[in-house]
């Protein structure tokens, strides 16, 4: 028998073939294109060729459409599970972004599913059905395939507490050590579907990121014998490799590709050979069946995106992302102004996220706001010390390196996953980086209200909830330092700001300098 493990991951709500930059945009990705590829890959379905489709998480959040459904048309939320049914998904995994709109909404998204959601390392104090299955066992022609579902254990570090009340995210390696031996007794083939990635280079085994537990795919394969195939996600990489002889896939993001692991079994139901691959979907036409489900709500959302909000006096478009991070930018300054107006603080920080942030055109619509501020972030006000602030700025300063006198991005923020969103720019303080100095010693000026910040000085700062919880390796920021949370999404705060300030002037900030 030939088993084809077909996987999607990190679709992030890009259901129709568009990036939403304009109403007529046509993008080479989307779940609708994925659906056509899956249809082709599952066309042969017999006792000799057995296709198994798995969605590996981060499915219901991340695009303007996901925001529109969650905030304005929750009656459309079952669309996600209906589309998964159309793709013949046989197991679903929770990604970290599945929790961004709360558990009631997540339950609604999955309300039409014909497949189990697997949550081996998620313990639920309330014993909800949604999190009750650690694994599933599928059987055909006497062959049994077990699928164990795991979610990155770092969810609790990022998510707002009320969104995951009662949930506990256990260590994925310890969980796999408990379950894989049992599954080996129950099934012929054991598959782990993990919404997490590889923390080590698959060829050299050298660490490729901080070993903080966010990604533990390499550890799973090094420490847990008996895994026949590993499906990964979360890092938005396209991977088709073998690690310790085990095939591993990761199919990128936004439905740009499909992962497939082919396992050839012997007559004794043992894995004889395996082959991982990533299949691009750009050449596939969008599935008419999928688009028939997507179009009604997508068309409403396109109308909403064209809603005018306000006007920019000056230039708030981001023409060079590295330059904006190096010298500050009117768009960054504007986002920080929105944050400070919403919270009443006079220090705020924001990231430019990744390099697809366009900024705002002169005539601002909801489309520009949603395309520039793509995360459903909420704000938190945190009480910190001057020492905390300096440590955070040193973390920011490590984003840059010098090569032959030229400023480059530190590879730590580029590989194995693009993480430009870890770098923040601050308003309300005056600060200077000296890139000729070693990491940890680069902040050479830090003033607040015209006076140097002292280590024990008490300050309040506005951050998005991800950063306020320490996300991005900012240990100086913690949940127990948060003194106030705002329940409103940043995109709504931006729209509200334009309602109060119909004309906004783009200002080039001068509070931040870099020497090199």
From TrEMBL:
An example Pfam family from this entry, by short name, is: Metallophos
Supply the name of the protein.
Answer: Bifunctional metallophosphatase/5'-nucleotidase
Indicate yes or no for the key word Nucleotide-binding: yes
Gene3D superfamilies associated with the record: 3.60.21.10, 5'-Nucleotidase, C-terminal domain (3.90.780.10)
| Record-annotated Calcineurin-like phosphoesterase domain positions | 5-237
Classification lineage: Bacteria, Bacillati, Bacillota, Bacilli, Lactobacillales
Where would one find coiled-coil regions in this protein? none
Query: Which UniProt keywords are listed?
Result: Hydrolase, Nucleotide-binding, Signal
Q: Which family does it belong to?
A: Belongs to the 5'-nucleotidase family.
Q: Where do the 5'-Nucleotidase C-terminal domain residues begin and end?
A: 322-477
Under SUPFAM superfamilies, the record lists:
5'-nucleotidase (syn. UDP-sugar hydrolase), C-terminal domain, Metallo-dependent phosphatases
């Amino acid at each position: 028998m030939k088993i084809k493990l077909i996987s999607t991951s990190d679709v992030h709500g890009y259901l129709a073939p568009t990036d939403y930059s304009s109403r007529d945009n046509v993008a080479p990705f989307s779940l609708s294109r994925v659906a056509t590829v899956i249809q082709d890959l599952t066309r042969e379905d017999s006792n000799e060729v057995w296709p198994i489709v798995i969605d590996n998480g981060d499915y219901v959040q991340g695009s303007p459409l996901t925001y529109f459904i969650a905030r304005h048309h929750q009656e459309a939320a079952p669309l996600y599970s209906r589309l998964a049914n159309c793709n013949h998904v046989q197991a679903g995994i929770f990604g970290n972004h599945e929790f961004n709109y709360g558990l009631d909404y997540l339950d609604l998204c999955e309300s039409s599913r014909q497949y189990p959601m697997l949550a081996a390392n998620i313990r639920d104090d309330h014993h909800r059905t949604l999190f009750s299955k650690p694994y599933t066992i599928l059987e055909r022609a006497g062959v049994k395939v077990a699928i164990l579902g795991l979610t990155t254990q770092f969810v609790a570090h990022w998510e707002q507490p009320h969104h995951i009340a009662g949930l506990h995210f256990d260590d994925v390696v310890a969980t796999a050590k408990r379950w894989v031996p049992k599954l080996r007794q129950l099934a012929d083939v054991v598959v782990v579907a993990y919404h997490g990635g590889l923390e080590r280079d698959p060829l050299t085994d050298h660490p490729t990121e901080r070993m903080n537990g966010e990604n533990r795919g390499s550890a799973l394969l090094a420490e847990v014998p008996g895994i026949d195939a590993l499906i990964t996600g979360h890092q938005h990489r396209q991977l088709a490799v073998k690690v310790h002889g085990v095939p591993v896939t990761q199919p990128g993001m936004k439905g740009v590709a499909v992962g497939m692991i082919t396992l050839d079994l012997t007559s004794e139901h043992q894995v004889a050979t395996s082959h991982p691959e990533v299949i691009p979907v750009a050449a596939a036409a969008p599935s008419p069946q999928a688009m028939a489900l997507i179009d009604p709500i997508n068309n409403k959302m396109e109308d909403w995106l064209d809603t005018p909000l306000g006007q920019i006096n000056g230039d708030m478009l981001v023409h060079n992302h590295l330059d904006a991070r190096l010298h500050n930018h009117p768009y960054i300054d504007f986002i920080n102004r929105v944050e400070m107006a919403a919270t009443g603080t006079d220090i705020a920080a924001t990231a430019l996220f990744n390099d697809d942030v366009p900024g705002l055109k002169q005539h601002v619509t909801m489309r520009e706001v949603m395309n520039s501020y793509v995360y459903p972030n909420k704000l938190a006000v945190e009480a910190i010390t001057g020492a905390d602030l300096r440590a955070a700025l040193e973390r920011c300063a490590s984003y840059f390196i010098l090569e032959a006198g030229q400023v480059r991005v530190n590879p730590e923020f580029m590989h194995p996953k693009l993480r430009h969103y870890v770098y923040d720019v601050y308003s309300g303080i005056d600060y200077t980086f000296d890139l000729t100095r070693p990491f940890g010693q680069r902040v050479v000026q830090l003033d607040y209200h015209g006076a140097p910040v002292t280590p024990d000085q008490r300050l309040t700062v506005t951050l998005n909830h991800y950063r306020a919880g320490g996300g991005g390796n900012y240990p100086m920021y913690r949940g127990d330092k948060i003194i106030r949370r705002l329940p409103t999404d940043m995109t709504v705060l931006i729209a509200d700001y334009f309602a109060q300030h119909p004309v906004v002037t783009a200002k080039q900030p001068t509070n931040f300098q870099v020497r090199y």
